[in-house]
Amino acid sequence: MAPFRLTATCPYTGARGGELITPHGTVLTPAFAPVASAGVVKTLSPEELRGVGVGLLLTNAYHLMLRPGLEAITALGGLHRFMAWDGPIVSDSGGYQVFSLARLVKVSEEGVVFRSHIDGSRHSLSPEESVALQEGLGADVIMALDQPTAYGVGCEEADGAAQRTARWAVRCLQALRGGGELWGIVQGGTFADLRRQSAEHMASLGFPGFAIGGLCLGESREEMWRMVEASVAPLPPASPRYLMGVGSPEELVEAVSRGVDLFDSALPTRIARNGSLLTGKGRINIGNSRFQRREAPVEEDCPCYTCRTYSAAYLSHLFRTGETLGLRLATLHNLTFIMGLMARMRDAIRQGTFPRFREEFLSGYRPTDEAERLARRRQRGREG
RNA sequence: GGAGGGGUGCCGGAGCGGUUAAUCGGAGCAGACUGUAAAUCUGCCGCCCGGAAGGGCUACGUAGGUUCGAAUCCUACCCCCUCCA
Q1: Smallest CA–C1' separation from A211: which nucleotide?
Q2: Do A233 and A260 meet the contact criterion of CB atoms below 8 Å apart?
């Protein structure tokens, strides 16, 4: 079994290049997996995903358990066949829903009891059940059930969740039937020492890969990077590191330079559906009036179908009129942007130019940051 | 010609004596979105000054009137709709 192979490292940053080898193909890292919780990247077909360079998808055990259910998927030939995606799939354990659906969830040592967000029915998800479910789906990489904590919880609560995650991790390993690829998840809230402990513990359990969870939930960027650094440090260098739920373009670059190999995030696809488009200079809201008469594409040199074919004005029009084509075109564009960014990072790492790439990208990319903008305006006001 | 009903902010449409610059939609203008309960959510949305708090001005077809006070009551006029002739 050679699930992960390091192929390049950056001497000045922590960035690495590698290959994640799965039964459904090899993924070059650093890699980004679009989120397909319900077995779809919303609005796109597998063919379109391939077309924009997607090689890996993230699905979700909790969502697929509720609909259509494991029995249905098994009867229909497994998840890959069901969703007509023949590439690698990572499946999430449902741990994130412990956080995002907290109101409907009761967590105990045994596991998690959910009230379905769809119809209120009760479902349980223990570490063992989660592993069985994910193995049953046929995902290439499956995640241990974990317990993320909301941003702002105290040390004690974060510690409790991290330790429970650790105990669940052991149970997940023991529940593994097919000897598939099961990765552990580092928790520890916003406490560096807890993060280190959690990572050390996960490393000691011998997982073939490691995820860093529970971040990007409201903490500042500085705080988040401290946590990523604390989480990464104790992990075995030869194993893949997966920063769950991240992220935005600038975050991907920052995280890669800290040694992260794999990402997933709903951000690019979700903001696309809400009319936010990623460009090399930052995000834009395509519905803004300034695009109504713009004949140029969203981004001049973008290779995506949307930019090759349509004006920004047309895309703006589709959003203003609520036409569904707009959702698809925007999603295609954003994923093209992200996949292109990952490819550029891989190239730069291999060619030894990653630090320069990082600087150039970050200096040219202006993330929309409301707080920052407000501060800037206040500053200007004071000066004026 | 007769009998009813109605004219409210960009549009639709509440309100029917004071707590109303006027509920609520839509449109418009901006913002957010990160292991997706999201094609969602939030803010602004008469004019002027202000960063804001707040202040000033103009407003419910038109013109008068009643009243301490009117989008709300009365009168006349102008428009619109329905029915009858």
Answers
A1: B35
A2: no
